[in-house]
Structure to design on (427 residues):
């Protein structure tokens, strides 16, 4: 196992494979890897906090490794060293498994190792990766993507998830679970990074003529309009608008519009007491059914579960909280009786601000997501054995789907994000 580090890379991401693969934990039932830490460039390597690192091996040692991990790259705006790119290509051609954690995916993409493959990275950098390397099928929803001999992960802690997946693949679930216990992390984290994505547009669009149209769309998400309406406001044909929008954002305009409506629904679910029906109306969806379908496809959970997990807790005003004298039941003799949920009474505390599920049961703090389909409406297979029927995408503007089949699938086929059905592992 070789770890390729560069100067300027953050120390946390760089240390993840060193901590997972470089510490002898055979006493806990974890097989030991032989670790080679290799410098991707000459000289002491600066890292977070003004620290400098000195790697004991150079690029020539990559040829001895069966697996090479690139934990991070210092800047997505800089090209990796040519020598490191050549060494990675050669090692991959000779059969090495290549892993990119977080921004390490940019190094793999620069080497051409992600061409035609699904990959992920930190959600904040996913649009840039898709735009700069159009042959890469970027899926920003997943914590990690395993495409056999090339693997990538999302940001920071998702690197631990992928490293545990590698141990699970190499040595079985028992070894991975033992390592997870030693690291005090979950053996498998449910869900993906979709719930944490801030889907704002890239900064490059700020001076583009489309910026005005995009601003109008964001300010009027409560209205039902489609991509044709946006193209008309931009004085462009639909085809020209699609091409121009995609070149700026790396995303198809229809998918972007649906995403923005879902993001607005997230905000309302987090900060308001509006019903799901009202949230759907204020976000421009034709019906609550349309909201639930797109919400579950993008985030992997229902609106109700999302509200339970992410809703902001707001303190109650003193007037809204009954006093102990008012709320306590009185027993004979004037003694206060037990108050359910009160401190020291043995009752279960009452959680404020979280609506119960049907049947009166409180919603769990977390739930396994149900990825009903990829964003293009086609079934997806993953590490958790997800296999679902394809669903017809619903137009976000409240209009009937256009003839010719699945609108969303057609958009995805013209785009470069979100791969089609696959049997590879994702997390």
């Amino acid at each position: 196992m070789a770890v390729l580090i560069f100067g300027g890379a953050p120390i946390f991401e760089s240390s993840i494979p060193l901590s997972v693969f470089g510490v002898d934990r055979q006493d806990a039932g974890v097989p030991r890897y032989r670790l080679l830490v290799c410098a991707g460039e000459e000289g002491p390597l600066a890292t977070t906090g003004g620290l400098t690192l000195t790697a004991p091996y150079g690029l020539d040692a990559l040829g001895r490794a069966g697996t090479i991990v690139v934990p991070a790259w210092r800047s997505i705006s800089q090209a990796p060293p040519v020598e490191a790119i050549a060494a990675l290509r050669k090692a991959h051609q000779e059969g090495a498994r290549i892993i990119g954690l977080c921004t390490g995916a940019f190094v793999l993409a620069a080497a051409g190792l992600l061409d035609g493959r699904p990959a992920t990275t930190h959600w904040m950098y996913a649009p840039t990766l898709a735009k700069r390397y159009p042959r890469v099928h970027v899926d920003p929803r997943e914590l990690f993507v395993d495409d056999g001999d090339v693997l990538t992960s999302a940001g920071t802690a998702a690197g631990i998830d992928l490293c545990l997946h590698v141990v699970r693949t190499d040595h079985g679930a028992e070894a991975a679970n033992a390592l997870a216990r030693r690291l005090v992390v979950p053996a498998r984290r449910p869900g993906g990074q979709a719930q944490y994505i801030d889907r704002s547009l890239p900064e490059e669009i700020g001076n583009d003529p489309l910026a005005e149209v995009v601003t109008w769309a964001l300010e009027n998400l409560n209205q039902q309009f489609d991509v044709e309406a946006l193209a008309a406001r931009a004085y462009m044909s639909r085809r020209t608008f699609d091409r121009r929008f995609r070149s700026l954002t790396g995303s198809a305009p229809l998918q972007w519009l649906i995403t923005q409506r879902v993001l607005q629904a997230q905000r309302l679910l987090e900060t308001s007491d509006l019903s799901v029906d009202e949230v759907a109306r204020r976000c421009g969806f034709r019906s609550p059914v349309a909201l639930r379908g797109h919400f579950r496809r993008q985030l992997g959970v229902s609106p109700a579960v999302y509200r339970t997990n992410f809703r902001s807790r707001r303190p109650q005003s003193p007037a809204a909280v009954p006093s102990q004298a008012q709320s306590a039941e009185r027993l004979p003799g004037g003694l206060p009786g037990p108050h359910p949920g009160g401190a020291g009474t043995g009752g279960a505390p009452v959680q404020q601000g979280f609506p119960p599920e049907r049947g009166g049961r409180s919603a769990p703090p977390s739930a396994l997501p149900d990825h009903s389909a990829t964003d293009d409406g086609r079934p997806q297979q993953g590490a958790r054995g997800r296999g679902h029927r394809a669903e017809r995408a619903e137009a976000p503007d409240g209009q009937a789907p256009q003839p010719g089949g699945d609108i969303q699938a057609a958009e995805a086929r013209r785009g470069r994000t979100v791969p089609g059905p696959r049997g590879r592992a994702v997390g």
